[in-house]
Design brief:
The chain is of the alpha/beta class. The protein folds into 2 domains: 175 residues, Thiolase/Chalcone synthase (Peroxisomal Thiolase, Chain A, domain 1), CATH 3.40.47.10; 153 residues, 3-Layer(aba) Sandwich (Peroxisomal Thiolase, Chain A, domain 1), CATH 3.40.47. It has 11 helices and 13 strands. The protein has a 5-stranded mixed beta sheet with strand order 1-7-6-4-5, with helices on both faces. β12 and β13 form a beta hairpin. α3 crosses α4 and α8 packs across α9. The mean pLDDT is 97. The protein binds acetyl coenzyme *A. The site of acetyl coenzyme *A has 24 residues, from α2, α6, α8, α9 and β12.
Length: 334
C-alpha cells in the first residue's frame, strides 16, 4: 500500500469584505452580539459583478495548490469537489473544474457532506491513492453562501455566520510513511433537518413553492437549530479527534496542530478546553472569514502552512462536524 501526502495547498477568497458593521445596516444585529456568540468580525461575500462562483473559486485555489506541488494541471489524475452550494443543481462543479483547468478527461467526483465535505473528500482521495489507482488528486472545498442567505432580521441567526471562499490541496502518492495516517467518517441522519436547506429540491420543488406563494415560507433559506447544533458539535468534534488519536496510538495532547472546521469560535474554544490543548495547538481564522463550510478546513490549512505553523514531522489533525449530521477527522504526519 502507498501513503498519500499533501503536496500543495492553495486558497482563494473573494475581495469583498463584509464587516459586522455592514451587517448592522441590513438587519437588527450588532458587532457585540456576533463577536460574543461566534467570534466572527468579518467575512468575504462574493460581489456578483466579479463572476466568482464555487467552481471558479475552486479552480483558482486549485491552480495555486497545483503550482505549489510543482505540478501542472495535466499531472492531476482525479478531482474531488466538496460543496453544498454548487453553481448548478446539476451537474456538480467537479466537471467545471476539469474544464476550467483544461485538464484531459479525468474523473471528477462531487461530495455532498457540507461542513465535513472536505475531510470526506480527502478520505475518498486517500483510498484511491493508497490502492495505487491514482497518483495526484485535487481535493477542493468551495462555497458561495452569500447569494442564498436571508439578509434580513428574520435570517440573522444564520446569515451572520457564513462566508464565501475556496481551498484546495493536491493529495499525492508518497512512499516515506508520512502523510495521511487515518481518516474517520460518521453520520447521524435523524438530525438532517436541524441544519438544512430543504427546498427547492425534489421533496419540495419550485412549482410547489411558487404555487403556495407563502411569505412565511423560509424553506429555501438555510435553517439551523443553533443550540441543538452547538451541543452535538462539541460532542462529535471531540469524539472525532479522540478517535483519530486512538487509531494511531497517540493522545490528543500529542497533536501539534488541530485544524478544526471553522464552525464557530465558541465551539472551537469549547473543544480546545475539553481536549486540554494550548492556543499554539489550535488554528482559528473564522474571525476573518466566517464559516465557509466545506472550504473552511483547506483555507485554514493553507493559511496555517503559509504562516509557518506546520512543520516537517508535525501531527496535524483535521476535524469537522456539520449538517447531516456528519462528522469526520483525519490525522496527518506532515
Ligand atoms: N444578532 C442579534 N440577535 C440575534 C442574532 C443576531 N445575528 N441571531 C439571533 N439573535 C437573537 C435571537 O433572536 C434571540 O432573541 P430572543 O431571545 O429575543 O428570542 C437571541 O438572540 C438568542 O437566540 P439564540 O438562537 O438562542 O442564540 P444563541 O445564544 O443560541 O446563539 C448561535 C446563536 C450563535 C447560532 C448559537 O446557537 C450557536 O453558536 N450555535 C452553534 C451552531 C453554529 O455555530 N453553527 C455554525 C454553522 S453549522 C456548522 O458549521 C456545524
Amino acid at each position: 500500500m502507498y501513503t498519500s501526502r499533501i503536496a500543495g495547498i492553495g486558497h482563494y477568497v473573494p475581495d469583498n469584505v463584509v464587516t459586522n458593521a455592514d451587517l448592522e445596516k441590513m438587519m437588527d444585529t450588532s458587532d457585540e452580539w456576533i463577536v460574543e456568540r461566534t467570534g466572527i468580525k468579518e467575512r468575504r461575500w462574493i460581489d456578483p459583478s466579479t463572476g466568482d462562483l464555487p467552481s471558479t473559486m475552486g479552480t483558482k485555489a486549485a491552480q495555486i495548490a497545483i503550482e505549489k506541488a510543482g505540478l501542472t494541471p495535466d499531472d492531476i489524475d482525479f478531482i474531488v469537489f466538496a460543496t453544498l452550494s454548487p453553481d448548478y443543481y446539476f451537474p456538480g462543479p467537479g466537471v467545471q473544474v476539469q474544464d476550467q483547468l483544461g485538464i484531459k478527461e479525468i474523473g471528477a467526483l462531487d461530495v455532498r457532506n457540507q461542513c465535513s465535505g472536505f475531510v470526506y473528500g480527502l478520505s475518498v482521495a486517500d483510498q484511491f491513492i493508497k490502492t495505487g489507482m491514482y497518483r495526484n488528486i485535487l481535493v477542493i472545498g468551495s462555497e458561495y453562501h452569500s447569494g442564498g442567505l436571508e439578509k434580513t432580521t428574520r435570517g440573522r441567526n444564520v446569515t451572520v455566520i457564513f462566508g464565501d471562499g475556496a481551498g484546495a490541496v493536491v493529495l499525492q502518492r508518497g512512499e516515506d510513511g508520512k502523510g495521511i495516517l487515518s481518516t474517520h467518517l460518521h453520520s447521524e441522519g435523524k438530525h438532517a433537518e436541524e441544519l438544512a436547506l430543504i427546498g427547492p429540491a425534489t421533496s419540495r420543488w419550485v412549482d410547489q413553492i411558487m404555487s403556495e406563494n407563502d411569505e412565511s415560507d423560509t424553506s429555501y433559506f438555510p435553517y439551523m437549530n443553533g443550540n441543538f447544533v452547538f451541543k452535538h458539535a462539541v460532542t462529535r468534534f471531540s469524539e472525532a479527534i479522540i478517535e483519530a488519536a486512538a487509531a494511531n496510538n497517540v493522545q490528543p495532547a500529542d497533536i501539534n496542530l488541530l485544524i478544526p472546521h471553522q464552525a464557530n469560535l465558541r465551539i472551537t474554544q469549547f473543544i480546545q478546553r475539553k481536549m486540554g490543548l494550548s492556543d499554539d495547538q489550535v488554528y482559528n481564522n473564522i474571525q476573518r472569514y466566517g464559516n465557509t463550510t466545506a472550504a473552511s478546513i483547506p483555507i485554514a490549512l493553507s493559511e496555517a502552512h503559509m504562516e509557518g505553523r506546520i512543520k516537517d514531522g508535525d501531527l496535524i489533525c483535521l476535524a469537522a462536524f456539520g449538517s447531516g449530521f456528519t462528522w469526520a477527522s483525519a490525522l496527518i504526519k506532515w
